[in-house]
Every structure is written in C-alpha cells, then in structure tokens.
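sry for the spam today, last one i promise. struct tokens for design, 128 residues
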C-alpha cells in the first residue's frame, strides 16, 4: 500500500491550518508578495502639438523642375569580367575555325571510299 491513505490523489496535505502559504507568513514578509494597487486612471491628452501638422504641398514649388543630367554608366567589375571572357571565347573560336575546317577536309578525303565503295563497310561485312 502507498502512504497516501488520508489524502485524495492529486492533493497534497499542508498540515492542520491549510491555506495559501503566503497567508501563513508574517505581515511584513507577506507585503512583499502582494500585488501593487491598481493604476490611477487619467484622461487622455487632448492636443500636445504646439504647431499644426503641415504637408509637403507648401514645399512643392522648391523642388527642381529641370531634367537631370544624363547619367554616365561606368562598367562594373562584373561587366568587365564578362567582356573579357566573351572576348577570349571569340578569339579562341577564331583560332579553332581553320583547324576545324582542315580536320573536316581531311576526314572527307580519308573516309574510306574507293571506286564508289566504302572500304570500312566491306571490311566489317567481311569479318562477319
């Protein structure tokens, strides 16, 4: 059996004079745990501004009316990098173009045709 014979489950006994623990303390200590008195209600502030709010309209005539100067756009580091990369790519393609043409011409000359027959197909068929 458990030791909880007199107290119902979920409750804890506090002794003979049970009540909130704060109420059992001496008055000078109990005062530190008590809530402060409610706040005094005061009427809302009517108008604290000394000068009325004004808009932007009174300063509108002081804005510039002429068109601004044409903006000079300087190249950014990213733009410079992309331009260099594209220039390198164009130079490389220009260097490779004659080599590619030579290679293709050489492949056309050496494609394996002799008297209208493809020798490579003949060799392949011959090996079957």
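last one done:
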């Amino acid at each position: 059996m458990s030791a909880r014979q007199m107290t119902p489950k979920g409750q804890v006994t506090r002794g003979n004079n049970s009540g909130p623990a704060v109420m059992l303390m001496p008055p000078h200590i109990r005062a530190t745990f008590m809530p402060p008195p409610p706040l005094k209600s005061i009427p809302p502030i009517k108008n604290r501004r000394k000068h009325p709010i004004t808009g932007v309209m009174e300063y509108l005539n002081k804005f510039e009316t002429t068109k601004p100067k044409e903006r000079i756009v300087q190249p950014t580091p990213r733009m410079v990098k992309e331009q260099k990369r594209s220039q390198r790519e164009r130079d490389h393609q220009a260097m490779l173009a004659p080599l590619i043409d030579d290679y293709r011409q050489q492949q056309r000359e050496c494609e394996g045709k002799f008297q209208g027959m493809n020798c490579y197909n003949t060799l392949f068929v011959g090996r079957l």
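DSSP finds three helices and two strands in the chain. ok im logging off now
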